[in-house]
UniProtKB/TrEMBL annotation:
InterPro entries, sorted: Acyl_CoA_acyltransferase, GNAT_dom, N-acetyltransferase
Coiled coil: none
Protein name, entry field: GCN5-like N-acetyltransferase
Gene Ontology molecular function: acyltransferase activity, transferring groups other than amino-acyl groups
One Pfam assignment: Acetyltransf_3
PROSITE patterns to which the protein is assigned, alphabetical: GNAT
Keywords in alphabetical order: Acyltransferase, Transferase
Family named by the database record: Belongs to the acetyltransferase family. RimJ subfamily.
Sequence ranges assigned to domain N-acetyltransferase in this UniProt record: 9-177
Annotated region (Disordered), positions in chain: 176-197
Length: 197
């Protein structure tokens, strides 16, 4: 798959490159990113460079992932991607630099990625389904997925490998035929989790 950039009214989504390594490394020192994203800890400049070049280049070239750096002006605001692309499906993943959280940036970036994922070839990937997963308790990520229209599909007990062993995993999905209005999520507003807010 060839690398490509996406744009929204406020953001530019570009494939990661070597110039992103320092900003990636700085962002990955954040305790929240280290808690919820499966990255090496400690996260070094070598890790950032490897991810931004070899790792992302291979993912694009092999067609199993499409990964973008989220840019707001000249600043890296986060990272978003479609992972495990195959058989008409993929999984959405994302994280934000702490200074850019709570401003709607990740929702805007993810909408552009969903549009690309569901658009028919050659404008997009022609996917039928995009999934979302997060360690149970990652309310920030869940609220983004909920706003994007994902349908909560359940909790898989001890199905995710976390830093300290197995953890419960929240899962949701969005079909190309679904409307993208915000959906109720029991994990945020019911017995599986505390009240959102």
């Amino acid at each position: 798959m060839e690398k490509l950039s996406l744009a929204t009214p406020n953001l530019e989504l570009v494939p990661p490159c070597a110039a992103d390594a320092e900003a990636l490394t700085a962002a990955c020192q954040d305790p929240q990113i280290q808690r919820w994203v499966p990255i090496p800890v400690p996260y070094t400049l070598t890790d950032g460079l490897e991810y931004a070049t070899t790792g992302c280049d291979a993912a694009w070239a092999e067609g199993h992932a499409a990964i973008w750096t989220i840019r707001l002006g000249d600043k890296m605001a986060g990272n978003v991607g479609l992972h495990r692309i195959g058989h008409g499906a993929a999984d959405l993943g994302f994280w934000m630099v702490p200074a850019f959280r709570g401003r709607g940036i990740i929702t805007e970036a993810c909408r552009a990625v969903l549009d690309y994922g569901f658009a028919p070839d050659p404008e997009g990937l022609g996917l039928k389904r995009i999934g979302w997963n997060a360690y149970a308790g990652n309310h920030g990520s869940a609220r983004v997925a909920q706003r994007l229209g994902f349908r909560f599909e359940g909790i898989s007990r001890l199905a995710a490998v976390g830093r300290d062993g197995l953890e419960d995993d929240w899962g949701a999905g969005l079909l190309a035929t679904d409307d993208r209005s915000e959906q109720p999520w029991p994990a945020l507003n019911g017995p599986a989790g505390p009240q959102a807010g």
